[in-house]
Amino acid sequence: MPLRRFLVALCLACPALAAAEGRLTEAETRWLDAAMPVLEAAREQGLPLDVAVQAQPQPGASPVAMGYAGGRCKLVLAMRGNAQADTLLAGVPPHLETRVIEAMTAHELGHCWRYVRGAWNTLPDGFMENVEDDSEPARQWRDMRRTRREEGYADLVGLAWTLKHHPKHYAEVHTWLAGVRAHPEVPGSHHDTRAWVRLAVDPGVFPSSGSAFERAWTVWLQGLAAPDE
């Protein structure tokens, strides 16, 4: 399905896209073209997904982000007038750019998968969270750990997608992701997913069948059971 038709089909009710449709920037077009296989797979799996392109500059916003509203996932591109968008693929070799964009898109769809199942920020059966300390610092730390777990799962979805669809590039994409996650500002903070990324160094840790979401789930559980989690 052509990019224009796909976007209109998904986002007819999205004001941001309605304003931008027909005059996407080169960066937006390149990103969406590369992400198309992941978006098509999401549609085939029945994920309630809308794609929106922010027509107005959003300085400081995440260039690619996932939200959830009205029972639908919202993949939002905020690349215009956003310095972060200019560095999003910094250091990625040209031959790997499309694969990295696919992995990043699959990462965001991992968030969608969790949202749709009503499982956002929750632990699977068999895992418990210590909520006895109700102090403000303890609540903030729990919130940070919950976000970290969701980011860990999403990173694994990106890797599982790569392994399933582009196995020859798995090691390169993993190396890129490990580099991105290598130096968190605060150990254990929101995007410190190193425990899960380390588990996935060997692609053999993923099951050989199932969707990227299902394959990531198995490895995610292993990370949750690790002592440092």
Q: What features would you describe in this structure?
A:
By secondary structure, the chain is mostly helical. It has two domains: 86 residues, no CATH class; 129 residues, no CATH class. The protein has nine helices and three strands, in the order αααβββαααααα. Strands 1-3-2 form a three-stranded mixed β-sheet. A hairpin with a 2-residue loop joins strand 2 and strand 3. The longest helix has 30 residues. The N terminus is likely disordered.
Summarize the structure.
With 229 residues, the chain is mainly α. It has helices spanning 3-11, 15-20, 26-44, 83-86, 97-116, 136-165, 170-181, 194-199, 212-224, and strands at residues 49-53, 64-69, 72-77. It is globular.
Write the layout of secondary structure elements.
Layout: H1 3-11, H2 15-20, H3 26-44, E1 49-53, E2 64-69, E3 72-77, H4 83-86, H5 97-116, H6 136-165, H7 170-181, H8 194-199, H9 212-224
Give the tags.
229 residues; 2 domains; 9 helices; 3 strands
